[in-house]
Amino acid sequence: MTGAARGIGAATARRFAEEGASVAVLDLDEAEAAKTAATLPVDGDEKAIGIGVDVADAAAVEAAVTRVVEELGKVDVLVNNAGITRDNLLFKMTEDDWDSVINVHLRGAFLMTRAVQKHMVEAKFGKILNLSSVSALGNRGQANYSAAKMGIQGFTRTLALELGPFGINANAIAPGFIVTEMTDATARRVGVEPEAYREAAAAATPVRRVGWPEDIAAAAAYLCSDEASYVTGQTLYVDGGAKV
Ligand code: NAP
């Protein structure tokens, strides 16, 4: 699970551990990843480990996946969750804003999936889950992020086509507003207190509340379960109806 030291990734790691899985928490900072891994409820033969990796770095990704297989024995599930935002209106967006976002989301998901798929193909089993966003449908100030998140949906559909014959399912979740560091940082950047920003988001959402990382973790648990073995290539919007 990438980007799992905090936010949606950490909640999903917790949910998977609660369901009896061993979990590898991958994040930029190994100490933070290990700290989160140490809080996960694992017992018996299950393990939780933390590994530092920049998902946009091909060599680091190969090394991280090798470590996961060595330490946990196999990879049944890959969750491509690591993400950043570098919001700016198009006329102010720098090449660095564009490249960093595309690199973490798209190059990162590509590199991680390429490294993991060989183990899954060998095992004839695997579940790949990619994090898209409602911003894939377009969002002012997020030309880079929305392009990456719609790219993730096309990537997911192609993985489903190529890897389905090997017992591997690939799906995506497109969250709406989920309370994490990412949305709190966006609030501060636009000069609004995070609490007021959440209230405005809740008011603009049909179910009249914001989403929490556990909402995404629940959908992730379903999509990576045997019950969803006939579901592949899909993007599930988990957004309280925000984009209906
Ligand atoms: P978050 O709280 O900012 O957590 C993202 C994590 O990814 C951080 O721990 C971050 O590490 C890590 N990360 C960033 N760049 C990385 C890299 N190159 N390699 C490895 N790890 C990296 O974000 P979140 O809100 O949980 O979002 C998780 C995913 O859901 C993202 O893909 C995001 O785009 C998507 N999403 C979120 C929302 C929302 O409302 N929150 C909505 C739609 C989609 P550092 O802390 O070291 O930077």
TrEMBL record:
Q: Which Pfam families match?
A: adh_short_C2
Q: What is its EC number?
A: 1.1.1.100
Q: Which UniProt keywords apply?
A: Oxidoreductase
Q: Would I find NAD among this entry's keywords?
A: no
- Say yes or no: keyword Oxidoreductase present: yes
Q: Which SUPFAM superfamilies match?
A: NAD(P)-binding Rossmann-fold domains (SSF51735)
Instruction: Tell me where in this chain the Ketoreductase domain is found.
Output: 2-176
GO terms for molecular function, please?
3-oxoacyl-[acyl-carrier-protein] reductase (NADPH) activity
Q: Which family does it belong to?
A: Belongs to the short-chain dehydrogenases/reductases (SDR) family.
**What is this protein's record name?**
3-oxoacyl-[acyl-carrier protein] reductase
Organism, as annotated: Nocardioides marmoribigeumensis
